[in-house]
Structure formats: C-alpha cells, structure tokens
Amino acid sequence: MEENRLPADSPEAQEGSNLSIDDIDNLKKLTDTKWIEIASGDIESHIEHDENNLDTIGKKPGTYYRDIIFALLQIRLPEEEATRDWKEMLKHKFIMSEKLGRNVGIHVAALDYYTNIKRKIINPKIMDAHEYVDTASRSLLDELTKAYNRHFMDEEFKKLFSNARHGGKGFSLIMLDLDHFKIYNDLNGHIQGDLALIETVRILHAVCSPDDTVTRYGGEEFAILLPSQPLNLALKTAENIRSAIYDYRFVNEYQMPNGRLTASLGVTTYRDSLATPVAMIEEADAALYRAKNGGRNQVKAFLTSLNE
Fold first, then answer.
1. Among residues 26, 101, 215, 246, which is most buried (max CB within 10 A)?
2. Catalytic residue selected from 220, 239, 253, 283
3. Quick one: which of 60, 11, 28, 212 has its CA closest to 136?
C-alpha cells in the first residue's frame, strides 16, 4: 500500500526553517560528536546501531530520531515516524553499499531513501550540518559584539521565568548602561566606540559565569540573566562588573567626565508577584534609572519599597 504523502504546508514540513535554541544545541551535539556518521557506519567499519548511544547526545527521551532526520535533511517528522525511517534508512544504506561495493554515505542514502523508496517528502535537501549549525548560531548573536541578541534573551528569559514560576528556581536580572557613551563616541568616533562595546562584552564574559546569559540589549545597554542567583549574589556580580569596567583602560577615556568610561547597573530578582518577564525588565530598568540619577558608576537594586 502506498504511503501517505506529507503535505507541503504541514507543520512537520514547514517547521524546519524555525529553529529554536534547543534545536541548535541538539544539532551542535550531533555534529560536533559526529554521532550520525558513527552510528550509520560512515566512520566505523560497520554499521553501528546502539540504542544506548542515543543518551550521549543529551536530548530528552523521545525526540532523538526526530533530531537526526532534521540534521540530515532539514525536515520535521513525528518521533515515531522518524524512528522507523532511521532504521529503514540504515538498511537501505547497507543494501546500496553492498551493491556498489563501497560505503555509501548516510547523507546520500537518506536522500535516496526519501526520494526513491519512501516517495513521501516533497523537497528533501542536504546541507553541510556544521555550516547549517554555524549559520543558525550566528542568528542568535549580536553581529558586532558577539553577545547574545534580544531574540535569544527573550527565549531564555521565558524559560527562566517559567521555571521560576512552576519549579521554584529563582533567578536575577542585571541591566547595564555605559555612562556618557554618546560623549565617548563623539570624542573618539564610532569605530572606537564599537571597539569599546566589544571590550565591554569581553569584560562581562570574564566576570560572569558560563551559565549566565550576556545580551546586547540595545546600543550601549546590556542585560545579564543570572540563573539560580538570589538578589544578594546578583548584587555582588553586578558590583564585580562595575568595578571591572571602571578598572579597564579604554582608549582615550581620560577625556570623559571623571576621566573614565564607566557603567551604571540595575538589579532585580524573580518574585511570585511578578506577572510577566516584561515586569521584571521594568524593575531592573527602574533600578538602573536610579543608579544613573544617583551619580552613575554604581549599582542599585530594585526595592519594593523605595525607602533605603
């Protein structure tokens, strides 16, 4: 009996162009470890199909084969169908290799299987997996500074907020703004201003932990998400950032007010009374505004009561 054709406008066929952060992480694991090539026999001298190896790619149970098919052809399938296809694809690869007297790569076997055997996928395509992952990763980074961009932050923020709301895993947020940065740009030119932004991100990455999310929020403003950090630890991190930026010697900063390029920071932490991530950003912004109005080059926490 002929298999049902997958409509071109189905969610499975269309989802491939809409990568999530988790998608990129999983594709990186698959490509960096060459798991597909090893499991399919492209690297080993025999076809290896060990269910236990699937645990090494770190994805939640029930979605491994879906990731493999996506990494191979950039098409989406339900997990049950992807599992069947992967096993049939390995058999097809072995048969092709036997007939041709040489190893047929998994990418060629996958394309032949879907176009000539399954006759289901309308427009399967093959791309270099590493290039695809690199391109997808770049879409989440700020082009200038290589900090994460707003899209990445929004996704991470939603996850942290949901985990805090439903799982009790608190977190904190820092909003940072470079003081008098327009003056620095006017004095030194936009190229040197861009270099100062790049150097600022390097400082943030040096001070923050690998688990923290450093984001260029806009212009000379940055946001840092701090998973599992209560307010007191977040304030220490913010102070370490402020101090590191103050101690750093930016080019021609002696012309700035007070002779330094400095930063002001606002800090807040998750509370159950916060309705949305936007409300939390507004709190951090309010604290940042107080730091600016208080003389700059300082850290302020959002307080439910403004009586300090």
1. 215
2. 220
3. 28
